[in-house]
Design a protein that fits this description.
The protein is α+β, with helices and mostly antiparallel strands. The protein is built from 16 helices and 16 strands. The protein has helices spanning 2-14, 28-36, 40-45, 66-75, 78-81, 120-137, 154-167, 174-182, 194-197, 209-224, 269-272, 287-296, 314-329, 343-352, 363-368, 386-398; strands at 18-19, 25-27, 48-50, 58-61, 85-94, 106-115, 141-147, 230-231, 243-251, 259-265, 280-286, 307-311, 334-336, 357-361, 370-375, 380-385. The structure holds histidyl-adenosine monophosphate.
Length: 399
């Protein structure tokens, strides 16, 4: 997990973003006003309780980061004094879920929020960034994008969905019956009959001219930047604040919980929360799910050691400590194995944890100033000097 966070952090710094730390505990009201009263998160998933302060404030463990960042942004006065901000955050989020693979009650997000940039170039920049992250992690992925419109064109789409829902009442599940009037966009997420949703109205048919142009520009910029994406006109996202571009990145091998990154534009949110009329857009990486995706793809994470050190005997063990320290000084990830286990067991373990090399040192090697360097991917072993071994391992890391 920290490998993914480190990659994400290095990436956001290249995109000139600054860290913001947001509280784990916020007033519940914050999420009602932003995430949305009729969303699953607010209706069912928030851990919320009454504080024992004088006002008996109702507080919640944060289920997502965006509302806290917007609150902090407004409280700092940035919306009025310095609206253009590029921020990132990371940490645990909490949702009352039925735990399953890739879905947890406490999970980790690494998120990005950009304020004061209503232009489609900003949408494209964040999607390029997401693409860069997933490519860098080498995880197989698909990116789906859509435009969910804005307050001008959304009402017509909403109404079309209500009409469609009523016409298909008998085929819809109980959840959807409740959604028809309260949150009709969520009808498109009906899990019971995904095929049915194909006959539902789609958001792109209802976009106003401004939203259509915005979406066309974003797509054009992505294509120019060689980013591959699929337009999914039925992807609406489960949170209320989105306007215009919404997107999700899916990775294979995760079963039902395949979305590893998700986000979109939320141009009305800062104003709705009491700030100035400032545009916003962002996304969050589901760090736990991304880690599962890497595992499923058989990608050894950076946590896999470059070398496992295997020493035989007390004198070799003493020397192996120095060898390990020298390799670590060369920025290599090195694990020192127990000198009390059998060679066969240690080599099996080295392969199991994904170590690239085993460096084997016995009394004989010690006396001659060499090591046995075993390439665990190619099952080839050779005797070389310590300095040469270090060079080979450093080179292999660059591959
Ligand atoms: P979200 O779609 O609710 O969006 O969550 C973003 C990502 O967090 C999901 O795609 C998933 O990878 C991960 N995630 C969500 N719930 C869980 C869970 N129970 N267990 C494990 N992983 C989970 C947001 O939270 C928005 N704040 C994203 C955003 C930022 N939009 C604009 N800016």
């Amino acid at each position: 997990m920290s490998f993914i966070e480190e990659r994400a952090r290095a990436l956001v710094e290249r995109y000139s973003m600054k860290e913001v730390r947001i509280p784990v505990l916020e007033r519940t009201q914050l999420y009602l006003r932003s995430t949305g009263e009729t969303t699953d998160i607010v209706e069912k998933q928030m851990y919320t309780f009454t504080d024992r302060d004088e006002g008996e404030t109702i507080v919640a463990l944060r289920p997502e980061g965006t509302p806290g960042v917007v609150r902090a942004y407004i409280e700092a006065g940035s919306d009025r004094t310095d609206p253009e901000q590029r921020l990132f955050y990371s940490g645990p989020m909490f949702r009352r879920e039925r735990p399953q693979k890739g879905r947890y009650r406490q999970f980790f997000q690494f998120g990005v929020e950009v304020f004061g940039r209503p232009d489609a170039a900003c949408d494209a920049e964040l999607l390029i960034m997401t693409d860069e992250l997933c490519r860098g992690l080498k995880v197989p992925f698909t990116m789906e994008i859509n435009s969910v419109g804005d307050p001008k064109c959304r009402p017509a789409f909403r109404e079309a969905l209500v009409q469609w829902g009523r016409a298909h009442w008998d085929q819809l599940c109980d959840d959807c019956h409740n959604r028809i009037d309260r949150n009709p966009l969520r009808l498109l997420d009906c899990k019971i009959d995904a095929k049915l949703a194909e006959s539902a109205p789609n958001s792109l048919d209802y976009l106003c001219d401004e939203c259509r142009t915005h979406f066309a520009t974003a797509k054009e910029l992505l294509t120019a930047a060689n980013v591959q994406f699929v337009v999914n006109p039925r992807m609406v996202r489960g949170l209320d604040y989105y306007t215009r571009t919404a997107f999700e990145v899916m990775a294979g091998g995760l079963g039902a919980q395949s979305t590893v990154v998700a986000g979109g534009r939320y141009d009305g949110l800062v104003e709705a929360m009491g700030g100035a009329a400032v545009a916003g857009i962002g996304f969050a990486i589901g760090v736990d799910r991304m880690a599962l995706a890497l595992q499923a793809a058989g990608l050894a994470s950076a946590a896999a050691p470059d070398a496992a050190i295997i020493a035989i005997g007390p004198a070799a063990t003493r020397h192996a400590m120095v060898v390990a320290r020298n390799l670590r000084a060369a920025n290599l990830n090195v694990e020192m194995f127990s000198p009390e286990r059998k060679m066969k067991t240690l080599l099996a373990r080295a392969s199991k944890i994904g170590a690239r090399f085993a460096v084997i040192i016995g009394d004989d090697e010690l006396a001659r100033g060499v090591v046995q360097l075993r390439d665990l991917r190619q099952s080839a072993q050779r005797e070389i000097s310590e300095a040469e071994a270090a060079r080979v391992i450093v080179e292999a890391r660059k591959e």
